[in-house]
Structure formats: C-alpha cells, structure tokens
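User: Some background: our group keeps a shared notebook of sequences we're curious about, and every so often someone picks one and asks for a predicted structure to add to the entry. Today it's my turn. The entry only has the sequence so far, pasted here. Could you supply the structure so I can complete it?
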Amino acid sequence: MDLTGFTLPGYRVYEYLLVLKPHEELRNKIMHVKKEFHEEYKTPNAGSRPQLALVNFVQYEMMEERIINRLKAIAMGYPPFKVELKQFGSFPSHTIFINVTSKVPVQSLVKLIRTEAQRLMKLNDDNKPHFILEPHLTIARKLKPWQYEKGWLEYSNKSFTGRFIADAMILLRRPVGEMKYSVVNRFEFQNMPVTTKQGDLFG
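Assistant: Of course. Here's the predicted structure to add to the notebook entry:
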C-alpha cells in the first residue's frame, strides 16, 4: 500500500482491522486446518490468526479515540449472536475459506458500522474503508492458480463444522507495511436499549 503523497507529513498512519474472534478450542481447530493446507500446498501466511474480519481501513492515529468511542457505542446496543461455520468455500481463483452459514447477524453488524462509522474510517478518496459483507474465515489466500485448483479440488469435498458466540468485536492495528497486528480495544456486545439521542451518543 503506497500512501505517499496522500497523507499529512508527521502524522502516523495505521492499518486497522475489526474482527470477531472464535473461542480458543475452535481457533485451534481452524489453525490445524490452516497448517495442514500450508504444509500440503506450500502457501504463505499459515500463521495468521483465525478470525472473522468485519472491516479494514487505514487512518491517522489521531482519529483512533473517536473511532473507539463510536465502536463502543455501536457494540453497546448490539446483542451477542451465534456464528455457525460449515464446510469450505472459495473465491476463484485465489482464496479458500470456511463458510459462515449464519450470515445475517454478521452482515447486519457490518452495515450498522458502515452507517455509523464510515466517515471516521475514511482517510481520503483513495483510501476508503473496506466493509466485508460476505463473511468468511480465511484458510489460505493469494494462492497461485495450481495451489487454488488442487486445494479447492480437495477442500470442496472436505467437511468442517464449528460454532461460537460472538460476544465482542476486537479492533486491531499495525503500522502500514508491517505484518503483525496488535490489539487496540475490545468492544463487548451488551444489547442495551439505546435511548440516548444520537447526537449525545455519537458526538
């Protein structure tokens, strides 16, 4: 990602990722699948964490507090929900993933974040937030054609099931161009009635 010429000098820019995280037992089960795929097909990024991405964006660090406050308010009014995982899917011809079969609550959350926080997440016209409306849990991406073809032939016939309760969303960040994300904040879904006027809540 080249941000030269698009950012203000002297201000730090981070790449952010907002995710749902499965419980530890399910994370280990998914990591096992990722490692098996990596060993069989020699793919990159085998160690990336099993998580369900909701939105990714780049933004100045100075905007972080306002984004955190907005996400906190969104999570406060949103109920915990069940995420069902079943079998494998693919984006031809580069990505293989685990299907999320309970898409609606995830999509509703992403749409709510888009409505309430899109403006805060937009760095400029060339760097707009990417809202992930097709929920999935990546096993391998950026595959070469042979890796995809052979891998999908095998994994389209494999079975996988899992479920977890999404009780929070987690904001991660990394300096642009680096590999490793760190946790910024965790926002618990509290399903509280949001009776406050929007201006008070989101100001």
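Suggested note for the entry: The longest strand covers residues 81-91. The mean pLDDT is 91.
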